[in-house]
Amino acid sequence: MSTTIQKRRPIPPTPGRELPAARDQRPGRGRLFWRSAKLYLFVLPLVLFTLMLLVYPILYSFALSFRDATVETFVSGEMPWNGFTNYQAAVTDPTFVTALANTVVFTFFSILFQFSIGFLLALFFQPAFPLKNALISVLLVPWLAPIITAANIFKGLFHELGVVNQIGHLLGFPTILWLADSHYALVATIVANIWIGFPFNFILLYAGMRSIPEEIYEAAKLDGASYWRRVTHITFPILRPVTVAVLMLGTIYTVKVFDLVWIMTQGGPANSSHLLSTLSYQIGFSTAQLNFGQAAAIATVVVLLILVLNGFQLFLRRR
Hints:
This protein is mainly alpha-helical. It has helices spanning about 30-65, 70-75, 85-90, 95-125, 130-140, 140-145, 145-155, 165-170, 185-210, 215-220, 225-240, 240-255, 260-265, 275-285, 290-319. The model has no long low-confidence stretch (mean pLDDT about 85).
């Protein structure tokens, strides 16, 4: 017995009678607006934080650098416009030239040794071995320690009777007044900053190396590539984005270093270890004149220096 299924034909519309239109299910403009507004409310705290604590201080400092801002004018609320007078006074000051040169030298050697030590340690910790994680935790101590603690530790190490001179005596070297000699004060601060910053470079480079597939190294090893050829032809090229990020962050941090140098030397002796950051603080808050305008001008130079150095690094990356 067979059954046949007949398809139901669509009922044609009656002439003169239109079918009811489907209701538009799309939300109205008002509903879309409030739905989008709720999403923007989640980022509103971050926007307010950025505007109030980052953008506004930079703009205010930039505007202050073009005004005669001293204690008297600041209290009176006048602070008259004086153009580029603060910049001219800063540039013509011999201490500014010394601080600018010290900042470049301090940044260059700090970044050079921090990155080199961090890279070599990242290579060393790639294979697995006993107590690996414990040693990594120990290496992070300089980075996690407060700056004031690290600065006072190195202030004691480089003291006339400190450990550095004691080791030097055992090796037959005379006593060196590291923090009281204009030839060695900046060197001592650079060594301290290298000790503080190399764990940051190490942990980022180590994480970047761990993300490289092991099969690439195995294939190169089968082709007869030596260890250092694998490092130069595989690790370096793949780590280029991480390297640029590490160098940029390190540059930003190092150019604006203040507390370490101020605690160890306060820019002395005879202004020989001044950086732009410490000189700006001294002019604005530690001298009799308390020239806020000139201090703001030097702070603006620090921001420009950071932008120039990071722009140069990006230029090298593109090439």
